[in-house]
Design brief:
441 residues, alpha/beta, Leucine-rich repeat, LRR (right-handed beta-alpha superhelix), twelve-stranded mixed sheet, 7 helices, 22% strand, disordered C terminus, binds 2-acetamido-2-deoxy-beta-D-glucopyranose, leucine-rich repeat
Length: 441
């Protein structure tokens, strides 16, 4: 399976540790802290007066060369009743403070009371925010990571928030109710390598800005309402994981993808056009999970599926795939789950497939298979193989003779029919003991 979650755990731990360390340093180095004043009772919580550097009305970006105002502290007592001094451990935190407060002001729902903690200058202690030393200045402190997973926050947009966190490396916000489109400005987030906005209400086109983010390795936008096409270039980006399932994308799998090193790819529950291109399997030799279910894939399964040597899960259930199963499936030695239920597949279930040692679930129900050999029958008994609702004589729960006859009344061909018994991983050693039958009722 994909080990992305382990990576996340490790990196989050790292950040937590860094935060603890930083917390200590921050207190020691308060001499260098920036001072800001924030007007209280003046109506707007967002109105900042940073003495000495704010000549344009509170605009961002913060000026890095602005002088520290030492006098502010000494004049403070006189103002104490009206003003509160915010001291930031680093100017980078001062910079994102107004961004966060502005975002807080557009949050429409916060059932868990998360944003109650988004108060004051200690941004690194806000729930969901984690700080670290940014790569370009190891003595600075910046918001490096956000983990809002499961916070159930609602906001109409992330614009003006995510794209204004210049040092962010990880942004995880799954299972919230954030909406709108993703700003093209996120392309400027030079350190962002993990973006997870799955299970939200995002809409609009594929966030093409990610194509310009060379450091991005993990993109999870599944379970949203994105529409339109998916740019082909995304498959050749630096990504390890690409999750775009359960949107309203129209995906035309390109016939010539080129090389990619995506390990996890989920395209399920979108709208696909056309066949599974042969090149997709050549392009993704290291894919561990392939989820293509409930799409509109058509055509025959090319023998190149056998090139997915690392595949553990392959799921293309509920499509319009047809033809016999390629014997090359025997090359998927790590395969644990294969779901091709609910397609238009026919012929024999290859015995070489049933021989795969790690299979725990082989779902071929609701197709038009006509034969299973002895090894596959063992899997049926062990409830690994499900061939219900096919056309296999002598097995229970099969389609009616009429239904099968109707299906086979139309001649059905696949291109390169010779190739479906070809086993690329052992081309010369295997010889089939089962005669390959032409489909007949
Ligand atoms: C690095 O960050 C520290 C702390 O914010 C700051 O004082 C210093 O000027 C920064 N160095 C550079 C080269 O920007
Ligand atoms: C096997 O996979 C199918 C399709 O994904 C699923 O519906 C079924 O529940 C699974 N069976 C078991 C025993 O896990």
């Amino acid at each position: 399976m994909c080990s992305i979650s382990n990576i996340i755990v490790v990196s989050t731990l790292h950040i937590l540790l860094a935060c603890l360390l930083l917390h200590t340093t921050a207190q020691d180095s308060s001499r260098d802290a920036l001072e800001f004043t924030i007007g209280i009772g003046s109506g707007s919580k967002d109105s900042y007066l940073s003495k000495g550097c704010n000549d344009e009305h509170h605009t961002l970006p913060f000026r890095l060369n602005c002088p520290l105002s030492r006098t502010l502290i000494t004049t403070l007592p006189a103002l104490a009743s009206e003003k509160e001094v915010l001291e930031f451990a680093d100017q980078r935190l001062a910079l994102v403070y107004p961004v966060i407060q502005k975002f807080k002001s557009i949050i429409t729902s916060d059932p868990l009371g998360i944003t109650k903690t988004w108060l004051g200058s200690d941004v690194c202690s806000y729930r969901g925010f984690y700080c670290d030393n940014p790569p370009d200045n190891k003595s600075a402190i910046a918001v490096a990571s956000i983990d809002f997973n499961g916070f159930q926050l609602a906001a109409p947009t992330l614009d003006g928030f995510l794209d204004k966190l210049p040092d962010i490396a990880l942004f995880h916000a799954n299972s919230n109710n954030f909406g709108g489109t993703l700003s093209p400005n996120i392309a400027k987030l030079r350190y962002l390598y993990e973006l997870d906005i799955s299970n939200n209400q995002f809409s609009g086109p594929f966030p093409a800005a990610v194509l310009d983010m060379s450091g991005l390795t993990f993109l999870d936008i599944r379970f949203n309402f994105f529409t339109g096409s998916v740019p082909v270039q995304i498959f050749t980006e630096n990504l390890d994981a690409l999750f775009i399932n359960n949107n309203n994308f129209m995906i035309q799998l390109p016939d010539n993808i080129g090389s990619t090193h995506i390990l996890c790819l989920t395209l399920a529950n979108n709208k696909f056009n056309g066949p599974l291109p042969r090149s997709i399997f050549k392009a993704f030799p290291s894919l561990a999970e392939v989820l293509l279910l409930n799409d509109q894939l058509t055509g025959c399964i090319p023998y190149e599926i056998g090139l997915l040597k690392e595949a553990v899960v392959f799921d293309a259930g509920n499509n319009q795939l047809t033809g016999p199963l390629p014997f090359s499936l025997a090359c998927l030695e790590n395969l644990e789950q294969l779901n091709l239920a609910g397609n238009l597949l026919f012929g024999t279930v290859p015995e070489v497939l049933c021989e795969l040692g790690k299979l725990v679930n082989l779902s071929l129900s609701d197709n038009y298979f006509i034969h299973v050999g002895p090894l596959c029958r063992i899997l049926i008994e062990r409830r690994v193989l499900d061939v219900r609702n096919n056309c296999i004589p002598g097995l229970p729960f099969q389609r009616s003779i009429v239904e099968c006859a109707n299906f086979f009344a139309h001649p059905r061909f696949c291109p390169r029919m010779w190739a479906h018994t070809y086993i690329p991983c052992k081309p010369f050693t295997y010889s089939s003991s089962i005669p390959e039958m032409a489909p007949s009722p």
